[in-house]
Structure formats: C-alpha cells, structure tokens
Amino acid sequence: MAGKKKEILSWALLFFAVFTLFASCNKTEDNNKEDEQKNGIILGFSQIGAESAWRKCNTRSIKAAAAESGVQLLFSNAEQKQNNQIKAIRSFIAYQVDVIAFVPIVADGWDNVLREARDAGIPVLITDRKITTNDETLYAGFIGTDSEQEGREAGKFLVQKFKNSDASRTDPVRIIEISGTEGSSPAKGRAAGFREIIDECPEYKIIYSESGDFLRSKGNEIMRWILASEYKDFDVVFSHNDGMTLGILDVMNERGLNPGKDIVIITIDAEQAAIDALGRGAVNCVIECNPKFGPTIMTLAKKLAKGEEIPRLMHVHEEVFTEDNNVESIPPRGY
Ligand code: GYE
User: Fold this and answer.
1) What distance in angstroms lies between residue 112's CA and the mean position of ligand 1's atoms?
2) 3-state secondary structure of 312
C-alpha cells in the first residue's frame, strides 16, 4: 500500500513540476509581449522641417503611426538644415536607438554619418527623398515618392494639352519652371522627368527656371520678378509643389492675369488648396505626391529592428488629377 501511495505522490509531484514550468514559460512569453507593446522599438526620426502643407501632413502621419503602433519615436525637426539632421542622427546613434529613419533634405553629403550608424549596428531607413551614394550598405531601404514619374506626368499632361489646342500654332510653347529645393531628389527628379517628355517635342521651350525652395513666399517672389522681366510672356508654369503654386497664383490674380485659362498651370503634391484651385479652373493639372506613409515606415522599422530584410526601393501610390476630372469625386486631401 505504502508503495502505491509513493507512486501516486511521485506522479503528483511530476505533474506539478511540469505545470509550473509550462505556466512560467507562458508568463515569460506574456511578459515579453507586454514589454514589447509597452516599450516598443525606439525609432530615431529626422524630419527636415515644416516648409509646406505636404511636409506637415507627412509629420502628422509619422507621429500618429508611431503612437498607433507602440513605436517609441525620438523626433527631430531640422528646420531645413542638413547639419541639424547630421547632428540628430549622431544623437540617435549615441542613444543606441533600434532604427534610424530620415528625410534627406538634399541628396548629397550623407556617407560619413551613415557609415557611423552602420558601424554602430543601427539600420537606416530613408524616407520621402533619396540620397546619392556609391555605398549601398549605408541604408537598408527607401520608401517615398517617385519624383521622376511625377515630372513625366507633368510633361505628358502638357503635350496632351497642346496637342488638343490650336494645331496651326507655330511659335514655341514658352514654359516657366519653378523648382523645389536645390540639390533635393524631388527637385532633380521632377525636372528630369519633365524634360524626358518635353525634350522629344521641339515646340516646347523652358524659357526660365528658378528654385523656389518649395516655399509659397519664394514662389510669389519669383513670379513677381518674372512678370517685370524679359520672361514675362509665357504660356505655361510648371511648379514643383503646390505651396509655390499658391504663391504664384496670388501674384497672377493681383495682376489680373487668368491662370488656368490664358496660362497653363501644372503643380505637384495635391494638397486641398490645389484641388480647390483645379475645381475653380485656376489650375489645369495636379499631380499627387502622397505624404501619408507613416504606417508603412513603422512596419518597416519593426522589421529592421528584428533584423529582417526590407525591399530596397518602395514608391507610394500616386494619382494625377486634371481639368477633366470631376473634382467633387476627389476625396478630401487632409492637408
Ligand atoms: O513636394 C514638398 C515638400 O519631399 C516630395 O517636399 C517632398 C516635397 C514636396 O516640401 O511640398
């Protein structure tokens, strides 16, 4: 009998040991999940500033997505200075964040600081604007807009527009280009994509081009100067962002000009004010540049933090809105 009791006791002890072990594993697992949810990964993000409605929307998208996904965001606003971005990235390295992401204000000058991040074992995600480098090991991937395609869409609209107009026209179509921040990938890409299309047609001529730095005030200032210069007679304005376009429209309206009718206006971003201008016929073509990719940034950052691979190049979806669109059918832009 004693032997039977002993055997039952041994089984009971074994069962208790297995149960306790299993429960403690679950507990550890739950703790880990809880820690991760509570602590999340730490993402250092260097944003360039708040130069346009597009940029402010991009920042809102990033901050909201971080809060939504439990990512601890160290957010730095560089106030349009590359040096401030380099300092911010260095501080992220010192803080030993899990991942670094940033919008390179210009394409050049990043190799040294990105080498420091790589040597510190911190993966880097480039967003919105691209960098120029020969060393592909300096960053894990890019998510953002396809500036060359945006430029091509502008050129395609223009060629289509004049193909449908007065076929007997002999004088060249005179174009004013107001470009974005000098040295930035969107300014270089949009200019290149636009020229790829119009250079095939000798009747199109860019008579003047100047950078408005993506700023409404600079767009206004440049148009004011042009209207008093030898370039004052033109047929088209190709503006690299809506902010500058709104500044241009302010001057044209002040001078009693007829943008969208006597002068073709092509603009990029698709903020609400540009869509509204399209609706009242003051603009002819609005090419979307989508700022709302905060959630994708967080998904990619989490993968990088786990040591997973991500695609080298991801372009966000973008539409083209023209004077032939029913503007009422365009969803509110949110910026
Ligand atoms: O077009 C402009 C912003 O980097 C694509 O920067 C972005 C550009 C955008 O200031 O509005």
Assistant:
1) 25
2) coil
Contact predicate 271/333, CB 8 Å: yes
152 and 128 fall within a common domain: no
- Which of 105, 179, 269 to mutate to test ligand 1, by most ligand atoms within 8 A of the CB atom? 269
* Helix, strand and coil in the chain, % to nearest 5: 45, 20, 35
Domain presence at residue 12: no
Whether residues 133 and 151 share a domain: the answer is no
Residue-number span of the structural domain to which 201 is assigned: 147-289
CATH number, position 66: 3.40.50.2300
44 and 178 both lie in a single domain: no
pTM for this model (two decimals): 0.88
What are the Cα distances from residue 311, in Å, to 15, 66, 126, 264, 303?
48, 20, 12, 38, 11
CB-defined site of ligand 1, < 6 Å = 51-52, 54-55, 128-129, 145, 186, 214, 241, 243, 268-269, 289
Q: What is the pLDDT of residue 163?
A: 86
Span from the CA of 57 to the centroid of ligand 1 (angstroms): 11
Instruction: Give yes or no: residues 155 and 102 share one domain.
Output: no
Q: How many domains does the chain have?
A: 2
Which residue, judged by its Cα, is nearest atom 5 of ligand 1? 186
**pLDDT means per 10 residues in the chain (335 residues)?**
60 55 48 55 98 97 97 98 98 98 98 98 98 96 97 97 76 96 98 97 95 98 98 98 98 97 97 98 97 97 98 95 94 92
